[in-house]
């Protein structure tokens, strides 16, 4: 057997330590345990073996999770998981502090998730994978879990975002509990490290399927750039670094702006002061809108053309635009942004209504319209929230839950009573509690 090149091994593991430090894990001697996600491919195998050596050096334990998505053939998918388990068992026998868990998704779970989220199989697999990672972290009390994104992944992501019209600073070294120690390490360095360890790896057959954009970038665009544009990698990474510096500045500016323009926020909606919003430069306004979409739970990328349309609105106009389940409307001096819900459930219901046509879309009892007309459009029809209060006859305020208690409404029934909230005033009061339709009294603010 060929003698190992200790220099290559040491150099790689030193680079992984630096990657951990760049991600915020500065003092490895303070760690007691660390998580790592391993698929069986070269990238994650190099992460597993390097972290095993580092864990032994700094006396912390390594908890490994591998996911069997069951979206490829059973032989390939379960084979990858068993391969990772066998690697971990071998490391254990050699004295490394490594333990492995296989998480197997239910048959058809990824396809069902893709249908429910109205997105592709790859996105659904990623969604379920990250859910499993977060649960693994919580179950094991892990401070972090390491993911095997590399410099090659970073370059592919930057190219993909550029092609999609969304230039960005790329994959972050850390986000929440997720850390990425390999972001400065190339695939060539990874394979060299594994070859020095005499360690094989698994190859995902879907990596050659060019129906996926990332695969087309990896298999078609990157080889073309390598053949024709020397040094393109450095140029793209440098551009991303400059973009990151710019975004850091804009993040600070946007946070200050949000304090001024956000008038009210609930879980799935918010209101912006339009008069103040339209004073800001377009670069700030655009970022406020994207922040708002994220804040109300939008999971789809809202088109840039939609955002530009909102930027062109004037405060004196009445405007409304819809994308997917997101509704953006301007009325007077207020911009309403809502993740639209058109199905009432006993536990939660929320809808912003801009006219009678919106009410018709909800398919609710027509008797609710009398309450809405009393308040006027636009208004919000919803179930209770924890801190809701309602004005009394003497001008003071009373907690909505206290009113329900005085009506002797059982807890289980309180979320069936809808309230109507005004949106066109600064106070945005609850003006009607629609109790009569549930067999109780009405509470109407005069």
Keywords:
446 residues, 6-stranded mixed sheet, 18 strands, 45% helix
Task: Report what the structure shows.
This protein has 15 helices and 18 strands. With 446 residues, the protein is an alpha+beta fold. Strand 1 (33-37), helix 2 and strand 2 form a beta-alpha-beta unit. Helix 1 (6-22) packs across helix 2 and helix 2 (42-58) crosses helix 7. The longest helix has 30 residues, at 232-261. The model is unreliable at 342-346 (pLDDT under 50).
Task: Give a quick summary of the entry.
The protein is of the alpha+beta class and 446 residues long.
Average residue-wise pLDDT: 89
Q: Strand order of the main beta sheet, please?
A: 3-2-1-4-6-5
| Amount of beta strand | 15-25%
- Number of β-strand runs: 18
The largest sheet, given as strand count, sense and whether it forms a barrel, is: 6 strands, mixed
Rg (C-alpha, Å): 27 Å
Count every helix, treating DSSP H or I runs of 4 or more residues as helices: 15
Distance between the termini: 89 Å
Sequence-ordered SSE layout with sheet pairings:
Blueprint: H1 6-22, E1 33-37, H2 42-58, E2 61-68, H3 74-93, E3 98-104, H4 109-117, H5 121-140, E4 145-146, H6 151-163, E5 174-175, E6 178-179, H7 187-196, H8 213-228, H9 232-261, E7 262-265, E8 269-273, H10 274-277, H11 282-295, H12 304-311, E9 319-323, E10 326-331, E11 334-339, E12 350-353, H13 356-362, H14 368-375, E13 379-382, E14 389-391, E15 397-399, H15 400-406, E16 419-422, E17 430-433, E18 443-444
Parallel strand pairs: 1-2, 1-4, 2-3, 4-6
Antiparallel strand pairs: 5-6, 7-8, 8-11, 9-10, 10-11, 12-13, 13-16, 14-15, 16-17, 17-18
């Amino acid at each position: 057997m060929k003698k190992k090149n200790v220099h290559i091994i040491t150099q790689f593991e030193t680079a992984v330590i630096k990657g951990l430090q760049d991600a915020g894990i500065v003092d490895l001697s303070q760690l007691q345990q660390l998580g790592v996600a391993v698929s069986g491919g070269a990238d994650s195998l190099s992460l597993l073996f390097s972290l095993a050596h580092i864990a032994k050096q700094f006396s912390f334990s390594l908890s490994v999770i591998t996911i069997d998505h069951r979206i490829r053939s059973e032989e390939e998918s379960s084979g990858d998981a068993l391969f990772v388990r066998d690697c971990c068992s071998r490391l254990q026998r050699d004295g490394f502090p490594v333990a492995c868990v296989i998480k197997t998704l239910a048959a058809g779970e990824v396809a069902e998730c893709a249908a429910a989220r109205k997105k592709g199989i790859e996105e659904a697999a990623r969604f379920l994978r990250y859910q499993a990672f977060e649960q693994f972290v919580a179950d094991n009390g892990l401070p972090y879990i390491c993911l095997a994104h590399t410099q090659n992944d970073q370059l592919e992501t930057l190219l993909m975002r550029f092609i999609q019209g969304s230039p960005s600073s790329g994959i972050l070294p850390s986000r929440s509990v997720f850390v990425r120690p390999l972001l400065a390490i190339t695939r060539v360095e990874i394979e060299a490290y594994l070859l020095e360890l005499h360690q094989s790896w698994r190859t995902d057959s879907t990596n050659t399927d060019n129906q996926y954009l990332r695969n087309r970038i990896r298999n078609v665009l990157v080889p073309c750039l390598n053949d024709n544009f020397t040094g393109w990698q450095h140029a793209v990474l440098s551009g991303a670094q400059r973009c990151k510096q710019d975004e850091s500045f804009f993040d600070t500016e946007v946070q200050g702006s949000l304090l001024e323009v956000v008038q009210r926020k609930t879980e799935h909606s918010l209101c912006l002061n339009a008069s103040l919003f339209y004073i800001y430069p377009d670069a700030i306004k655009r970022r406020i809108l994207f922040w708002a979409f994220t804040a109300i739970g939008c999971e789809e990328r809202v088109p840039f053309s939609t955002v530009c349309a909102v930027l062109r609105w004037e405060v004196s106009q009445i405007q409304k635009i819809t994308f997917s389940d997101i509704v953006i409307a301007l009325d007077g001096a207020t911009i309403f942004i809502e993740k639209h819900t058109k199905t009432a459930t006993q536990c939660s219901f929320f809808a912003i209504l801009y006219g009678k046509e919106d009410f018709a879309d909800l398919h609710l009892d027509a008797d609710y319209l009398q309450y809405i007309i009393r308040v006027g459009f636009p208004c919000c029809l919803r179930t209770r929230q924890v801190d809701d209060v309602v004005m009394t006859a003497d001008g003071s305020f009373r907690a909505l839950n206290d009113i329900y208690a005085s009506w002797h409404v059982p807890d289980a029934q309180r979320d069936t009573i809808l309230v109507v909230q005004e949106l066109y005033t600064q106070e945005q009061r609850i003006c009607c509690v629609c109790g009569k339709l549930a067999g109780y009294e009405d509470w109407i603010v005069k």
